[in-house]
From TrEMBL:
Keywords: Activator, Chromatin regulator, Coiled coil, Cytoplasm, DNA damage, DNA repair, Nucleus, Transcription, Transcription regulation. InterPro entries: YEAST_sf (IPR038704), YEATS (IPR005033), YEATS_dom (IPR055129). It comes from Crucibulum laeve. Component of the SWR1 chromatin-remodeling complex and of the NuA4 histone acetyltransferase complex. The keyword Cytoplasm applies. This is Protein AF-9 homolog. Belongs to the YAF9 family. Residues 210-255 form a coiled coil.
Amino acid sequence: MASGDRVRVRGLSIFRPIIYGNTATVLTQKERETLPSPDHTHRWTVAVRSAASAPDSEQVGGADDLSYFVKRVTFKLHDTYTNPTRNIDKPPFEVSETGWGEFEIQIRIAFISESGEKPMLLYHHLKLHPWTASGDPEIPPLDVAIKQGPVHSWQYDEIVFNDPYQNFLNLLTSHPPTPLPKIKKRPVPFHLAHPASLEASKGGVPEFNVSMEKEEAERMEEARKKVIAEQDKWRAKLIEKEKELEKMKKVLEQLS
């Protein structure tokens, strides 16, 4: 490896779009009877994939192979599962299981050594049931849930590499990501930012698109403004209290 390859390209950022989340389907009574745990009601798959979907694919995302920059994805399941820490060293970066309950899954993405990057940690709440308009999970009878189709819970994210090493930058640029479609052709993906999206949580195969990126950016900007406004409000209150404290100190000094 040439020494110049380990030089960082300062002032440059490059990103790769990914999605992470899960798909869940209801098991039939016959399927449940074949399981070691007959109380399990769903089969689910949690995954990390490229954001774009392959043409005519029934899978959410996954058009691109991420292994050119992802070395390993570790999924930490609930402790009740056998070997709850699952290390996946090659694509597809996913784990399939059966179960009856929802829980939080820790997802650790480790990058290839050429990147010089630290692992990325994500969290995903496994979703087995659709949502109601109020944002609470709706648990329909199993026979009804089977007819409704799979439940999708996916989150879009962008892995950003700042000041990448030259050799890693060359690797990334030689594998451009598949562009997202410009318009919605399938139901919008269901994830934590859209708990009221019943359309997306039941049936169909969701697909991420460019317009969603814009919508997500607008939501983030709105949230940022709210945080700043809240900070300003509490800062003003703090200044007011500090002034009151100074007045009380002066009064005490005069009394003493």
